Amino acid sequence: MKTRYIPEAPRRAEIDALPGAVLLEFGANWCGHCMAAQAPLEQAFQGHDGVVHYKVEDGPGRPLGRSFRVKLWPTLIFLRDGQEVARLVRPLKADDISAAFAQIDA
Hints:
Glutaredoxin, four-stranded mixed β-sheet
């Protein structure tokens, strides 16, 4: 699991072409809602080592977040073979995150 949002983001075409299970997490390092989601995310992430995790710093003019229509942080988008399977906005419960992981991590 990644721990810091990074400003460098892959292009949408790269994300769409990724095989397997991918978690895209959009937010900002200074965001209180993002910080609050980290403990349940860390708990839910255990046992899903095969999931590729992108922790993308989002904001105005950031094309990847706009392409996924991200409005609030954090937004977790769960992808399987480039297709969105589940989305959670401002999750605070590990159980909710675990349920989304179960949909992509076969």
